[in-house]
Amino acid sequence: MTRRVAVLLFDNVEVMDFAGPFEVFGVTGQREGKRLFDVYTVARESKPVLARNNLSINPDYSFRDCPTTDILVVPGGFGTRREKHNPSVLDFVRQHAGQAERVLSVCSGALLLAKAGLLDGLHATTHRGALAELQVDAPTANVLPDVRVVDNGKVVLSAGISAGIDAALYLVAELHGLEQATETATYMEYDWRYHPNAANSAIRMVTASSDDAAPSPGLNVTTL
Questions:
Q1: Which Gene Ontology terms describe the biological processes this protein takes part in (predicted)?
Q2: Which of 4, 2, 113, 9 is nearest to 69 (CA)?
Q3: pLDDT at position 109 over 60
């Protein structure tokens, strides 16, 4: 099964927020001749998007013609402060999150999920500089500081920027096994130490309790 991965783009998106997961999903399985993910970019319109520092990207699709999505990647960046008030962006996120198997937010992309109403009652994280803003935008969410990746089941969130690579590798491990994810990380020469079952893990698995300040049982949270 080849899963379709839609990576949302918008002006002033953080480059590594989208490029990191794009690379992870894009290269996974290629050396074994397997096409596990079909990765593409999508923006509100077909015209070029100017990412942070004016990197120009031509999106593969617009909101009007984006295919059905299995995994929706919502990156962050300074542009989220504008786009979280953009009805067309929020409608797109709601629509494709609704049909997707998994939703992955990176960094302040969590603000878009919050404004789209997708974090109500969930556990969440984001870039350390946006934690307070996320709690305002998602008042019923349990916003967790000092964590790298939070897995609510369908909705997975990462901390800032480079943490999106860890979250994408985590999803690869969840969908295709730890060996496949480790192969991808090795090919990328990325020191992936954040999966709780990895031999060289530098994290611990946090589970636990009914306390409102703690993750619920079965929630996967990786911490530095």
A1: regulation of DNA-templated transcription
A2: 4
A3: yes
CATH of 3-222 given 3.40.50.880, 3.65.10.10, 3.40.1380.10, 1.10.3720.10: 3.40.50.880
pLDDT tens-digit map of 172-224: 999 999 999 999 999 999 988 755 554 444 443 332 232 434 444 344 555 44
The residues annotated as belonging to the active site are 107
CA end-to-end span of the chain: 33
CA 170 – CA 181 distance, rounded (Å): 7
Listing DSSP states for 151-187 in one string gives E-SSEEEE-STTHHHHHHHHHHHHHH-HHHHHHHHHH
> How many other CB atoms are found less than 10 A from the CB of residue 6?
24
pLDDT in tens, 93-102: 999 999 999 9
Q: How far, in Å, are 109, 124, 138, 165, 215 from residue 134 at the CA level?
A: 10, 9, 6, 21, 17
- Mean of the pLDDT values across residues 138-154? 93
166 within 8 A of 194, measured Cβ to Cβ = yes
Q: Is the dihedral of CA 183, 42, 82, 115 positive or negative?
A: negative
Q: What percent of the chain has pLDDT over 70?
A: 86
Q: Could you tell me the two tokens for 137?
A: 């935008």
> Residue 166 is encoded by which pair of tokens?
């860890």
pTM of the model: 0.89
Q: Which amino acid is at 12?
A: N
Q: For residue 86, what is the DSSP state?
A: -
How far apart CA 123 and CA 157 sit, in angstroms, is 9
